[in-house]
Amino acid sequence: xxxxxxxxxxxLKRAKGFYFLLIAFVLVTEGIxxxxxxxxxxxxxxxxxxxxxxxxxxxxxxxxxxxxxFTLIIGATGFALLAYAVFSxxxxxxxxxxxxxxxxxxxxxxxxxxxxxxxSTLIMMAGILxxxxxxxxxxxxxxxxxxADNYTTTPxxxxxxxxxxxxLVLFPxxxxxxxxxxxxxxxxxxxxxxxxxxxxxxxxxxWARTIIHIVIYWLVxxxxxxxxxxxxxxxxxxxxxxxxxxxxxxxxxxxxxxxxMSWLMNHYVSV
Length: 271
Hints:
Helices cover 80% and strands 0% of the residues. It is mainly α.
């Protein structure tokens, strides 16, 4: 456990430059977007013209989710985190004097090396989500003062659940939806990172064998997703039963992927 915590701390320290830039990107781009929407809303209120300008901001969706820019910002942020997760593997394997091999040569279980990368990525994702939620709360308070006559003073979480389609994906209102959304995301992250381990450990294997292993791994993962969808759509199940089956599939796949990550680090990687 101490080894894992030390590795997580090290991963987060090495990611701090990228992470600060990512936080700045989210705050600056969303700030520009909201400023533009607020400015247009004031013009609409002042002129009474709702044709050339957006309707006055009446809720958080008016300032965030109703704008395509917000979807692009969220998508770019998610892609940047995944890209960094991939880069962190490439950096350790091929830059910094093949740093990964010094780690792999240490005595003991090698699995914490991979788990630390996975967990540090999840921590950074959680930090961005907390930041986004904080932005919503600050904006909600500010809008209730700026547009007091038009703004609907509804709690942030209720607005997300009832009016904000993009944000609803990030902050599902029900436990079942939360486990489905983030369980599925964890499945993809496990698959991506395990693929990077297979790909970058090609030093001990031929490239053809390496690529075949990766292709088979992704085909099996896609086949499991298809089987999950097929079983829930063809069987006469209630919504609760279908949700339970999907959750069992997803978390069974995550357990298998977690075991596979450990096996790859301890038995597949050639030092």
